[in-house]
Amino acid sequence: MIRRTAERTTAGARLLRRTAVLIPALNEEEALPAVLAALPMDRLHTVIVADNGSTDRTASIASTAGATVVREPRRGYGAACLAGIAHLAALPTPPHAVAFLDADHPEYAASLVLLLDPLARGADLALGVRIHPGGPRGNLRTHARWGNRVVLTATRLLFGHHFQDLPPFRAIRFTALQRLAMDDRDWGWTLQMQLRAVRHRLDIVEVHAPHEPRSRGRSKISGRLGMSVRVGAKMFFTLARERVRAESAERGP
């Protein structure tokens, strides 16, 4: 079930102490400090920076700011997320919810309560649809915006559900996340989570979230056309693989 809301309450603020923040990061020493500074570090369950093989000061900056650094040298956005999740699952008291943030957008950190409000009211997964004053999809480059639209259309045709975006800014109940048994190790991570959330009939909410240009550095994906093409190819592979898996699950053993 998919619900959409732009409402904001104080419910999310009450959920903070039970929420972990997971930030995958690769060579983000320039952008990461602003993101960590915008987080209410002392009010969160824990803040994880999953260092994905950085060769700069990303790890030391995160540690100095009070974040827990989890190292995953094998490159891949999903690989970094999986390492962070494994760390959280091994804690004596795992978090109630996990929010995923990019290391280069401090406005996400400042808007964390937007995602936590729906979870506090009973949702399983909240997606931060990228919006800026000029229109939807935030400040995505043209090729990334069109690629996003094509993948979302294919998602609707193959899975029968309409999403507004494939945003990296999202929060999910930890027990629901574990049910999804995520295993994508790179660019199919966000899409796989949304597709599996549909399969598992999670209560999904989409909220409008601010999206500004990177504060520092250059995007690893949308800033380069060639990389965007590779990511798009992986998205379609993910769609096909998850469709096959869904059909196999429906048939049963």
Give the tally of β-strands.
9
Q: What's the N-to-C terminus distance?
A: 26 Å
Report strand %.
Answer: 15-25%
Our Rg estimate from Cα atoms comes to: 17 Å
Oligomeric state, counting identical vs distinct chains: single chain
Number of helices: 10
Secondary structural class: alpha/beta
Q: What's the rounded overall pLDDT mean? A: 88
Major sheet attributes: 9 strands, mixed
Low-confidence stretches: 135-139
* Rough outline: globular
The H-and-E topology, N to C, reads as EHEHEHEHEHHEEHEHHEH
Helix content: 40-55%
From the structure above, extract its key features.
single chain; 253 residues; alpha/beta; nine-stranded mixed sheet; globular
Written account of the structure:
The chain is of the alpha/beta class and 253 residues long. The protein has ten helices and nine strands. The chain has helices at 11-15, 32-38, 58-64, 77-89, 106-110, 112-120, 142-159, 174-180, 189-199, 225-251, and strands at 2-4, 19-25, 46-51, 68-71, 97-100, 125-132, 135-136, 170-173, 204-210. Helix 7 runs parallel beside helix 10 (225-251) and helix 9 runs parallel beside helix 10 (225-251). The protein is globular, with a radius of gyration of 17 Å. It starts with a strand and ends with a helix. Residues 135-139 have low confidence and may be disordered.
